[in-house]
Amino acid sequence: MLDSKFLENVSVARKAGKSIGLVQGSWDLFHLGHLRYILKARALCDFLIIAMDSDEKIRKRKGPTRPVIPEGERYEFITLLGIADEVVIKAVDEPKWHLIKTVKPDVLIAIKENYTDEQVEKLEKICGRVAVLPRQAKTSTSDKIRQITIASRMKKVEGVEEKVAKAAAGMKKRIHYSKEMPEPVPGLLKELRKSTDDVCPTAAACFWHGQWVYATNQIDFTIPEYDIQNRTELFYAMVEHAEMNLLKKLGKAKTVDTPIYITLFPCDKCMKVLADKGVKEIYYLEDHPDRNWSKRSHILAEKKGIKTVCLVENENERE
């Protein structure tokens, strides 16, 4: 339930002829990108509303370890910036687009990942317009937290960095890597060094909204040390494959109508998700054709009409 005083202030501003702007976010571990984003939103309206997700809402979406900063402190921080005319907290049980439908802002400010093109069209029937902005910095709170967690745990996992480097070097040797290989192969192999899977480091990439987006296998380094060291079933169950991590980085897109490049042919589970996302082309560097998961994945790709091409084989054929 929105505060009556808040609604009254919005109404008074609108009657005074002011344009109403709305920008939403978690604003957890506030960084330069957040500030630039809010300042751009401020410039697009006369009366700016900054909506902030409650702790419960963030936990439901991002997991039990978030937010890092509790809502009381986040609310005070945003308020003390002195940029917003109103700051409102969004509750976990708030219906979809409830605040937008209630305020009906003259301009809704969002980043590309917030809404699909179809959703933007629907929102523009509610708002005056939707101003879609690019991310204002490379910094990501989620990525920073993950990197800090991984860096901390990797120090405890003996030799993991050396193992990752050795595995990446082994792949380069197997595919006869050279710097002359076209994008995104060099980028994929560079990303392997950031991988946290020392058994089979895998990277994926695609060209999305005018730029290459890369992702790698992700390991949950919060699981017990024993499982990490001994590569137990729990360890492998917690691996987020590079393909899934890549799709997460693409945001809320319902379809991914762009080729996917990956170092290792996707497993059958990933192939199903890629097929459901509308992927039609997959280019890869290596495969394990003798493994059952690979056989199932190839069958699924053929059934779904997905083109699969081994870049290394093609490179050898050209030579």
Number of strands: 10
Return the structural class.
Answer: alpha/beta
Name the helix and strand elements from N-terminus to C-terminus, one letter apiece. HEHEHHEHEHEHHHEEHHHEHEHEH
The share of residues in extended strands comes to: 15-25%
Gross morphology: elongated
Q: Main sheet, how many strands, which sense, barrel?
A: 5 strands, parallel
Distance between the termini: 67 Å
Number of helices: 15
Average pLDDT number: 85
Structure notes:
- The protein is α/β, with parallel strands linked by helices and 319 residues long.
- The chain has 15 helices and 10 strands.
- It has helices spanning 4-15, 32-43, 55-62, 71-81, 98-103, 117-123, 141-154, 160-174, 185-192, 225-230, 233-237, 242-249, 268-276, 292-303, 311-318, and strands at residues 20-25, 47-53, 86-90, 107-111, 129-133, 203-208, 211-216, 260-264, 281-286, 307-310.
- The chain has a 5-stranded parallel beta sheet with strand order 3-2-1-4-5, with helices on both faces. A 5-stranded mixed beta sheet has the order 7-6-8-9-10, sandwiched between helices.
- Helix 13 packs parallel to helix 14.
- It is elongated.
